[in-house]
Amino acid sequence: MMRPTSSRERRLLALLILMALVAFVWFAIVSPIVDGFSVRAERREQLNQRYLHNQRTIAAVPRLRRQAEEQRQHMDVFVLGAANAEAGREALKERLQRVVERVGGEVRAAVDAEGESGSVRAGISARMTLPQLIAALDQLQNTPPWLVLETLSVTANDALVTGQSSSMDVQVEASIPFRPAAAR
Question: Pfam families annotated for this entry (predicted)?
Answer without folding.
Answer: T2SSM_b (PF10741)
